[in-house]
Every structure is written in C-alpha cells, then in structure tokens.
Amino acid sequence: MYRILEEFRLSRCERCRCEPNREVYCSISDCPAPHCVNPTYEPNHCCPVCYTGPNCFVGDRVISAGERVEIDEQTVCYCTYRDGTWQMQPHATCEQRPLPDPDLNHVPNPSPSEPPGEDETKQMDRDFRPRLDWIP
C-alpha cells in the first residue's frame, strides 16, 4: 500500500503516484530514438545513452558520424547526415567512386639521357588534364 502523494516506479521507465483520491496514476517515459547503433542502458535510467556519439555500421565495424571509410579503391562509406541531423540509419551509405582513367593522365616518358624537346614539351602540356571529378 502506498501513502497519498507517494511516488514510485514500477519499472525504470514507468513512474506512478498515489493521488489524494487514492487512485494511482502512472506515466511511461517516451525516449527519443538513440543516434547510435551501440547505446548504453544504464541502471535506474529509462532512456539509452550514446556515449560514443552518433554512429553507424559498415559491415560489422562501428564508425563515427562524419568519418569516411574506404572499403576498397572505389568504395567509400559514411553515416547519413541530412537536414542538420544524423539520420538513424543503422548501416552506412556507401558510394562507388570512378577509378581514374589511366589514358587521361598518361604523360610520355622521355629517355633519361635527353631532356624533352620543345615539341615534346608542348605535347605533354596538351596531354595533361587534371581529374577534378575523382577527388573524394
């Protein structure tokens, strides 16, 4: 039996109170979704806590929001960020980057004993085109 105006918990998320009319009213805490894939549930606290900050999975690895992980030469993965908040997608977004085209960056190699002639230097200048679309 509870005293009038006494507050008590039925669980870590459910609080109750014995009112003056001897009725018991309970409320259940509404926790926001955690912004991580590895929240900690503390004893005597209802809502989980993300001690490591927002994060997501790349395979079985947990990465922090804002970190970009290169899976291979073409694949980069990251936690999704949209509308100013970290979206609660448990798995990272992965994108394919195009490999550089070796023909676009090919510069003729003059023989080491002779410096390139004027015509060869002009040709090398025309062949060089920076690849801005390949920058991660």
UniProtKB/TrEMBL annotation:
Any one annotated GO CC term: AMPA glutamate receptor complex
Pfam families the UniProt entry points to: VWC2L_2nd, VWC2L_C
Domain VWC2L C-terminal: 55-98
Biased composition regions of type Basic and acidic residues, renumbered to the chain: 119-136
Chain intervals for the UniProt region annotation (Disordered): 93-136
Coiled coil: none
Record GO biological process: negative regulation of BMP signaling pathway
Superkingdom of origin: Eukaryota
Name of this protein: VWC2L C-terminal domain-containing protein
